[in-house]
Amino acid sequence: MWGVAATLLLLGVGVIFFLLHHQRTELKEITLRQPGMDKTAKAGGAAAESPLKRGQLIPGAGQPADIAGEWPRWRGPNGDNISDARIRLANAWEPTGPAKLWELELGEGFAGAAVRNGCVYVMDYDMAKQSDALRCLSLADGQEIWRYTYPVKIKRYHGISRTIPTISGKYIVALGPKCHVICCEAETGKFVWGIDLVQEFGAEVPQWYAGQCPLVDGDRVILAVGGEALLIAVDLATGKVAWKSPNPREWKMTHASVVPVEFGGKKMYVYCGSGGVAGVAADDGNILWDTTEWIISMATVPSPLPVGDGKIFLSGGYNAGSLMLQLQQAENKIGVATLFRLKPAVFGATQQTPILYQGKIFGVRPDGQMTCLDLDGKARWASGPAAKFGLGPFMIADGKLIVMNDDGRLTLAAASVDGWQPLAQAQVLHGPDSWGPLALVTGRLLARDMTKMICLDLTGTKK
Predict the structure, then answer these.
(1) Tens digits of per-residue pLDDT, 316-374?
(2) Which of 190, 195, 245, 241 has the alpha carbon at shortest distance from 220?
(3) Alpha helices, DSSP H only, in 29-176?
(4) In the chain, what are the domains?
């Protein structure tokens, strides 16, 4: 009996020894999770030092041009993509097209230009040095005046840089492809402040990288985050956060930009997140209303288009079509209703935000045709199958539509509500993907394709 017990005891000790030894062996193969190991930085985390702390200002040989006028942000001075400068544009071009004043090679992308005080600002990427670069160029000849650069590794993903800086007062604010926000002095390029939206606010870099353009409203910068906050307001001079809006539906950042809207005496910021649209109070960041009636399956790129009387026009690609929202005042709350939806064949906008002009909506629908809509959603005209523009940009100046197609063909047409009336056409770029938003200052048009920016004279007077 004792012999059996002794045998069982020895077997038990052996099993325990084996298990303990095996457990120690297994534990040696396990590494405890450290912040950033999964390459996903949490809000407020310290996964890695922000590359913004390793930035560098590099002066160049260029000089600001003695040229008046400005295009200080995405969609111009008034945010409507219409130039109100009283500059006459030529109604016809030579067979070779408008005169080219200068051209410049850029890193891959679709980032357009902002312009003020004879300087052109563009967010670029230096593939050789693996660095984002906010570049300041001369409007006269394209020579670089300065660049502020910081290291960040980015792989090609159908282009890299996609955003337009915003100039306000003495500052310029830009957003990099991986959601790094920088503020510099516009004249000197001196770094003022920076925010890593991924590391500090839990943002998620959108597919095809960041596409929103910073909104500066007074002394604040308004940014869509889609992490621990839907939007944040940041003091322009210091970079300190003034407020953070809640994000109860956990929407993620999209490529759309934030748009200011006033309704019922209340100022708000309207944003298309990954799961719908929301209006956020400008004073404190509280969500005034939201709706899940507008969701785009693949990528939300066009921004909301306010058309007056509390109406907001939304459009998208990937079979989304378009939709008109109506804000409604109900006691102390703002409600939202859908007035109508349009099928993609009637109107949708895959990439470029439409323009409100003379009470009509101008934009390019999914089949590439320029289209004019009444505010009730009825199509007035389309440019026809012979005039298609793909995902290219467009704007309005001097009563004319300036439209680029995918392959760099520029078209001038009358901005008429009565029909498509082309005036001139020329091949000014060679693509691919001439998608960067246009900028126009004193008749100088800044346009780009995937790797090149050009400056053209649309007045017919400069050489």
Answers:
(1) 999 999 999 999 998 889 999 999 999 999 999 999 999 999 999 999 999 999 999 99
(2) 241
(3) none
(4) 49-196+302-327+334-457 (2.130.10)
